[in-house]
Queue: 3 jobs
Job 1
Amino acid sequence: MKIAPLTQIQQDWLHHINQAAMLSVSMSAYAKQNKLALPAFYHARSVLIKKGELQKSPHPSLVSVNAPIRTTSCRITLSNGVIVELDDVDISDLLNSASRL
């Protein structure tokens, strides 16, 4: 299956996406600064990913936290309705445990 070449509009969106990445700003911030419609920006990125012009990036805004963070209490409501309440818990231990549920 041959993929059609990029249209001029798709090339323009690709330029905007690359500019946002080069400036290390979120798509939302870049769209706002350049008066672009954010839904159109995301749609264009999706189309360009499907065409193989962009690679899907895995959550570039998520950052690993290594320092233990303490809290006085925590309440988790599971999708099955079970409520878990904890006092004075280490957040990283809590998240690790919750990810195994």
Note: The chain has a mean pLDDT of 80.
Job 2
Amino acid sequence: MQEIKAILRNLDVAPRKARIIADLIRNRPALEVKAELSLRRERAVKPMLKLLDSAIANAKNLGFKPEKLAIKEIRVDGGQILKRWLPRAQGRATPIQKKRSHIFMRLEESAKIKPAKFVFAEKSGKEASKKTAAKPAKPAKKTKAPAETAEKTTGLEEPKDKAGLVRRVIRRKSI
């Protein structure tokens, strides 16, 4: 069986923080992990999601189905440490270590994969092309002339949306 892998090097997140996310997604279906990571807020999530997308794309190029992929191995190793100095009182300096991570991800195709708890629907080529296709211009709606409205305008018009109440309450200047 072919190996599907993707590697991310020199991620500006400490390995200890990236391992927290890696432990959550190990041995789980790839599409389920993709959906779950897109909802999380940690700093290491976005690069890991991009790495997972890369691994899934590699699998598609090799002829695998994304629905049958699982994360077999994910490893977070320490990368090169940037060493900096922070000036302190009385001529002292405090060392600062900016740690980096290398992330290695390996996917496998398995028939034992349970259906994912939740996934995001992929847009097919036809739906995606509909958005980019040029739409014919709609005819302009007729509007009433200003003379036809019998209301007096005071210069302070109320907003027409339902959030207008909040806008009026939080407005800086009083009426």
Note: The mean pLDDT is 83.
Job 3
Amino acid sequence: MKNVFKLILLGLLAVAPLPAQEIGIAVGSVAPTAKLETLDGKPADLSQFIGKGPVVIEFWATWCPSCKELEPAMLAAQKKYAGKVQFVGVAVSVNESPELVRRYTQKHGLAGAQFYDRKGVAIDAYDVPATSFVVVIGKNGKVVYSGLGGKQDLNAAIRKAL
């Protein structure tokens, strides 16, 4: 959970967007697996998505202003690429609970698999610098994009994985 304090600080400061590939997991890296839990507390692992087609992972929180700014673009991408790309949300555990995340995803219509990173395992594995961090993984299991902030070009990022 070395990155949890970074997440708190950057999330609370509503950090300005940084250009893609300057932070977090390196582009070209093999996407790591990470043990998480479903929103109903069952064990899960990101390995179930890696290497089986393009994947978009967003590390987010209900309280994150940049995540809320990115939400319309994420919803549009989920609709546009339905059936072609798997979308995965990883909710951080800072000031969150699985129930709060479940209610938020239902209210806002967030599609795709949603997980809770209670122990920060995925945060550490992906070197997540802050919430609103997006990682796009190609069908070969390698990272093709990583970026932070509410103004990311998700379409351009996803095209790299198709």
Note: Strands lie at 35-38, 43-45, 55-60, 86-92, 113-117, 133-137, 143-148.
